[in-house]
Amino acid sequence: MSNLTFTDRAQEMVRSFLDQSEGELQALRIQVNGGSPIAPSFELTLVSDEDRDPEDVEVDGGGFQVLLDPRSADRLEGASVDFVQRVNESGFEITPDASRNGVAAPTGALAERVQSILDQQVNPSIASHGGRIDLVDVDGTEISMVMSGGCQGCAMSRMTLRQGVEKMIKQAIPEITAIHDVTDHSSGENPYFTA
């Protein structure tokens, strides 16, 4: 049911953790544990057969079983799971499909122009910090964006948005009058930079 993908590194780490449990744990459970509809946060745990719920949605993670509660399965449709290592942290990182989290991806000429700038200029640059910025709404000449990964909760996110992203977008698309950050920064679990 859920089109959830794991990077090779994430698959390798899950298999390693399952192997270390010597058969006591048989599956990975992923569930939504907070955040906002646009930027949910997730909890990943290894579970035994006794921990399975009859309502769980079972997904193949690439050689191991993944269990999702029905609410989480809908939110994880189209998401990708990676295992990241940064200067002072490492762990699993889930990047939801922005068009699936209860919010339809914006359409139209203005949305396409903004998304093109995000895809070609912004996201490749902030990916080195484990971050991502997605367009979630276009209202006339105002746009709303959400930050995820290392950008969610990062102390530098406001500066990144105002001094970098906003300038790039307004320079390329001068008709945009306002850019809103609708990220729930308080639920960011892996900020790139903390104050």
* SSE arrangement, N to C: EHEEEEHEEHEEHE
Q: What best-fitting shape do the alpha-carbon axes yield?
A: elongated
Instruction: Give the low-pLDDT segments.
Output: 190-195
Radius of gyration: 18 Å
Number of domains: 2
Specify the biggest β-sheet.
Answer: 4 strands, mixed
Secondary structure category: alpha/beta
Beta strands, count = 10
CATH topology of the largest domain: Hypothetical Protein Aq_1857, Chain: A
Give the rounded overall mean pLDDT.
Answer: 78
Beta content = 25-35%
Enumerate the strands of the largest sheet in spatial order, edge to edge or round the barrel: 3-2-5-4
N- and C-termini, Cα separation: 40 Å
Summed up, the helix count is: 4
Q: Give the full name of the CATH homologous superfamily of the largest domain.
A: HesB-like domain
Helix content: 25-40%
Which class of the largest domain in CATH terms? Mainly Beta
Judging by the overall fold, what is the CATH architecture of the largest domain? Sandwich
